[in-house]
Structures are given as structure tokens and as C-alpha cells.
Amino acid sequence: MSQYFTRAPEISHLSDEQVEEIYERYLNGEKSAALVSEFNIPGNVHSLLRLLPPIISKDLTCPYCELPMWMRRYAKGTSASLRHPFKCVSCEHLHITSNHGRQRHCPCTECYKVRQREIAEQANRERLELEKRYATPSPPVPFASLSFVQKLVLLALLDDGSAASKDSIEPLDAPSRTEPLSPGDRFSKELVESLHEQGVLSVDVQSDIRAFDRTSGCLINNYFAVRWIPNVALEPGVCCARDELFTALYHELSANVQPVWKSELYALMFRLAREESLQYIHVLANEVSFVFSAQGSAKTVIGQLLQNFSVSHIYYFARLAVRNAAHFYATGNSKGRTHASNTIPRNMLRTSQDALVRNWRKTAYRDSRVPQSALQRLLYDVVLKDCGAGFAKSPGLYWRDELVPKFFPGAMDRDSPQGHLQLFCRECDSSNIDASMDKLTVITMCYDCATLSKFQAIEDFVD
Ligand SMILES: [Zn+2]
Ligand SMILES: [Zn+2]
Ligand SMILES: [Zn+2]
């Protein structure tokens, strides 16, 4: 290997084998001075290590130059991770193994190019995979078959703040969207996921690849980052353009409230108000460093409160309850933060009962940390044309006193078809309910307490 490294004159009398022997014995702990004199190395040697030529690897060759690779001799006791890696005699390529500290890539230009190529190929493969899975959308869903909530969600999705010329729908987390779809992320995901499952939304294959799980054939793992294409037919079998769909949706939803929307409208009003109230409790609990986990009882309590109180009233109860919980924790009488925060729903219920009995109401303002969602805005401004009612009016009272008389007067009729079925609410025994069924389940929704119940058929086994 002398063609690559000139040997120091002091050791020119030694063979390659002798050089290796000296190094071996040095590593094994023999004194340099003893080795210097034994092998007749002349002069005043300060560092035996400096004199020895670099190690040339017996096995490695540079993949780019096909030339040998060398390494500076390390001092005895140098741990493997601190040794210099083998380097090409000609180019900058290093042979990096996993034990070379934290650096896992060779920094040479050739390796960089290889890595870039691999990244590009990988991206290409993933894009093809995405196209394979999503490029052929299912047949478009007829506009007339969309439910009220589906239509409202679609309208909210299309209202994405982007340039009108686009065909696709901006992802939920796009910066051009100035409001969340619904008050809760989980609810928003549920809504979009169901539209996708029913073929109303197709995945735009130009979506950000990071929205998909690339290890599982590109299934969606982040519904908020997917770009969508609406897949709705205004004329049979033909997927309509985005702006046509927007116009059709807006036209229908801003016209008269339709009787068939009744149960969906009622359920959505309550769900939105409940989600918003829950979000606010989370925000307040966070402020006093509580992690609010009494989600289940809070949902029940809020559902109950919404029959008589508005979200604005509930905000007031929540503020009081969180303040009391924080005080309870601060006095040291609670068994910890969780225990203290678990008292919030009960406390809200207690205050609300007092408010009912003594007939007082206190309101609170909207909080910018729980911004109004697109669905709330469209539902109250466009469909019901009563801006602010979603926050300021109790959904229960609003429904009974204003919406039913105005939009569903027939529902007061005791001879309605549902009356003959003798169905009643599982929670409150009211027969003022709506029922829908498919082959396996019956779902009832109560107009007096907003309870949704699901009943499952027991299947007959065919032998
Ligand atoms: Zn090289
Ligand atoms: Zn390299
Ligand atoms: Zn009920």
C-alpha cells in the first residue's frame, strides 16, 4: 500500500508484518520505549503511533472509486465509537458503521446523491401506491340521497377560503380555513371519515403524503391533512364540479327548513352545543392545570342542562364549577387534581338546579379559545337564520318554543305515524321520538331529552 502513503524513514527498515506486530503489541499494553528499542527505531521518538502508517482495510473498497480505504491508527484504549471511520484513499467517502457516534450518514457528495436518489424513488413509490389505492373513485353519490348533516358538512368543507378555481377541497388543517369544522376534533374527524366511507368525498391523490400511513398501503392516518374531491352527482352518474355543488348546497340549505331534516337538525343542534360546552370545560380546567377526565358524566350533565339552558349559561356554570374545583384542590381536602376536577360536572348540575328553582340566569361571553365552528355558523346563520342563537338560546327551549311551531307544526299532532308504533324513549319515557332502522338496528332519537338509543336485532341463524 506504499503507493498511497510514504512510510516514515525511521521505520523504513521494517516489513509490513513487523509494523503490524509493533502496533498489536502496543495495543496490548507494551511500553512504546521498549518497542522502539527492540525494533531499532532510530532518533528521539515522541510518539510511536505517529510513525506508524495508517491501517489499510483488507476488506473494504470505496464503492465509487474502487480504491482501498484507510484509517488513522487509534491510541490504545480508544473506544470503538471514537475511532475514525475508514476513508477512501482518493475521495471523501467514509465507511460509516452504526458505532460511529451519532453520525449515521457519510457526508461525502456521492453518498448524498445516492441518498437523494433513494428519497426521490421512495417518494415516487409512495405516490404510485397512493394513486393505486385512490385514483379510481366510486360512482358519484346522487345529491338527493345526501342527508341534511351530510349536506351541511359538505357546504362547510367547500367553504374553505381557497381560490374558487380549484376542484379539490382544502384539508381541515389548511391555513386558509379560519374556523374549525365542528367544536371538537373528534367530531370533525368522525364527520369527514363518514363522508369518505360513503363515497361522498374521494381522496385527492395530490394530498400531502404524510396524511397516509405508508407502511399499510396508504390508509389515511390523519383525516385533517387529506385533500378531498367532492364526489356528488347533480345529474345521474356525472360527478358535478365543485362550484355547482356549492351553489346547489347553499341554495337548498338557505331555503326553507325541510320536514325530513327534523331529527337530524335536533340531534346536530344538541351535539354542537354539547361539544362546545365540553371544549370550554377543557379550556378552563387547563388554565388551573387540571386534566379534565370526567368526560362521560360531563356529557350527560350538559345534555340535561341544554334542555333549559344555553351554551352561554353553561359557560357560566362551568366557570363557577372549575373555580370551586381549583379551590377544593388548593385547600388540600381533595385526593388530588383528578378527584378535584371530577367534581366539575356535579357542581354544574347543582348550580343549575338552584338557577331553575330560584329562577335566575347568568350568561358568559364566547371565549376565543373555543371559536365558533363552521357548522355552527352555517346552521344558525344560513339554515335557521338566527345568528347567535346557537350560543345564546337553550337548544331544548329553542326547539320546543320556536323551531317546532315554525318548521314542524305537524309534529304536535298526536296522530302522527310514530304514535301508532308506541315507541318511547329509553331515558325519559317520552313518546315524542323519531325512529329509523336498517336491517340490523333501530335507532331512536328523543325530542324531549336528546337521547339517542340504538337497538340491535338478534339474528336468526340459518342451519
Ligand atoms: Zn472513493
Ligand atoms: Zn460517502
Ligand atoms: Zn327522552
Overview of this protein structure:
It is a single chain. By secondary structure, this protein is an alpha+beta fold. It has four domains: 9-95, no CATH class; 132-255; 271-409, no CATH class; 416-456, no CATH class. It contains 15 helices and 14 strands. It has helices at 16-27, 32-38, 48-51, 109-134, 148-158, 185-197, 242-254, 262-287, 295-305, 311-330, 337-357, 374-383, 389-392, 395-407, 417-421, and strands spanning 55-61, 68-71, 86-88, 94-95, 141-142, 201-203, 212-213, 219-220, 228-230, 232-235, 238-239, 433-437, 441-446, 452-456. A four-stranded antiparallel β-sheet has the order 1-2-3-4, with no helix packed on it. Strand 7 (212-213) and strand 8 (219-220) form a beta hairpin. 29% of the residues are buried. The mean pLDDT is 90. It binds zinc ion (3 copies). One zinc ion binds at residues 93-94, 106, 108, 110-111.
Short description:
Helices cover 42% and strands 11% of the residues. It contains 15 helices and 14 strands.
Question: Which consecutive residue ranges, at least 5 long each, have pLDDT under 50?
Answer: none
**Quick check: average pLDDT?**
90
Content-based structural category: alpha+beta
Q: What ligand species are in this complex?
A: zinc ion
Query: SSE order in H/E notation?
Result: HHHEEEEHEHHEEEEEEHHHHHHHHHEEE
Radius of gyration, in Å, reads: 36 Å
**Using DSSP, what is the number of strands?**
14
Strands in their spatial order, largest beta sheet? 1-2-3-4
Terminal CA distance reads 83 Å
The total number of structural domains is 4
Strand share of the residues?
Answer: 5-15%
Structure annotation, total helices? 15
Q: In which range does the helix fraction lie?
A: 40-55%
Tell me the quaternary state. single chain
The biggest beta sheet reads: 4 strands, antiparallel
Shape: elongated
